[in-house]
Each structure stands twice: as structure tokens, then as C-alpha cells.
Amino acid sequence: MALKEQLRTDLTAAMKARDEVRSSTLRMILTAITNAEVAGKQAKELTDDDIIGVLSTEAKKRREAATAFAEGGRPEMAAKEAAEAEVIAEYLPAQLTPAEIEGIVARAIAQTGAEDPKAMGKVMGVVTPQVRGRADGGAVAAEVRRQLGA
């Protein structure tokens, strides 16, 4: 079953179970997917990989919002954002461990022959498609910088 159809099916189940957090989160995800499909000059159907990209973006927004609310003294809002992030995480591929990220970056550096921080863009170009949806871009960039000695 395609990821978009799985989301719709799960939304129906959440509505029937009267699970407010899950149903509102799934509605928001489906809306974000629809917005991504109609963005640009021509509407297009997103692939599962594209949808995972949308899910990653939405999950990152929730994590950042939860942190901001927690720092701002709004624990109830932080808990709501964290709960939404957990629902989104169920649809994302398993996240890479720091050791796995380190290995992917090391192979990309060897493949590109990068030797200094100026080649970071070239290395990121090789690494990004391999980790899309499975690792935070900031963590990957930090590992690339570390290995390139930046």
C-alpha cells in the first residue's frame, strides 16, 4: 500500500477510535502532502520518497516547536507538539545511528576524494540522498564538517 493511502486509512481508523491527537496530526500531514503536490507551476503526484521528505520536514517542525515551548515555559504545548512528532515518526523509516551516519560520511568522502572543508557541498551531495528521511540534516552536516576537519 502506498504511504499516502496508508495515511488516509489510518486517519479513518483514528477518527473512528476518536483519537484526537492522531486524527488531527494525520489531517495536518495529508494537508502538507496536498500542499506539496500543488506547489509550483504544475501539480504532481508525490512518490513515497517525496512524502517521506514532507514527513521529515513536519517532524522537524514539531521537534523544534516542542523545544521552543518547553524553553518558553509552556509544557502543555510542548507535550502536544511532542505527541504529534511521535505520530509522524511512526511513518518515517528507522533513524540512523551516529555510527551509521559516520560510516556513510566516511564512504562519501572516500568516493569524492574530498580533503578539506571546501569540498563539503560535494560530500553532502553524495550523502543527502542516502540519509533522506532517516537522519537530521544538521547532524549529518556536523559529521561531514568533523570528518573534513572544519
Summarize the entry for a quick read.
This protein has 150 residues and is mostly helical. It has helices at 3-16, 20-38, 48-71, 75-89, 98-112, 120-131, 137-148. It contains 7 helices and no strands.
Features:
150 residues, mainly alpha, Hypothetical Protein Yqey, Chain: A, domain1, Arc Repressor Mutant, subunit A, 2 domains, globular
Layout of strands and helices, then pairs:
Blueprint (H helix, E strand, L loop, with lengths): L2 H14 L3 H19 L9 H24 L3 H15 L8 H15 L7 H12 L5 H12 L2
Helix pairs in contact: 1-2, 2-3, 2-4, 3-4, 5-6, 5-7, 6-7
Structure, explained:
The chain is mostly helical and 150 residues long. It has helices spanning 3-16, 20-38, 48-71, 75-89, 98-112, 120-131, 137-148. The protein folds into two domains: 3-89, Hypothetical Protein Yqey, Chain: A, domain1 (Orthogonal Bundle); 98-148, Arc Repressor Mutant, subunit A (Orthogonal Bundle). The chain is globular.
CATH class of the largest domain: Mainly Alpha
Any idea what the CATH architecture of the largest domain is? Orthogonal Bundle
End-to-end separation: 44 Å
Question: How is the main sheet built?
Answer: none
CA gyration radius, whole angstroms: 18 Å
The arrangement of helices and strands along the chain is: HHHHHHH
Low-confidence stretches: none
Q: Domains counted in the coordinates: how many?
A: 2
Please name the fourth-level CATH homologous superfamily of the largest domain.
Uncharacterised protein YqeY/AIM41, N-terminal domain
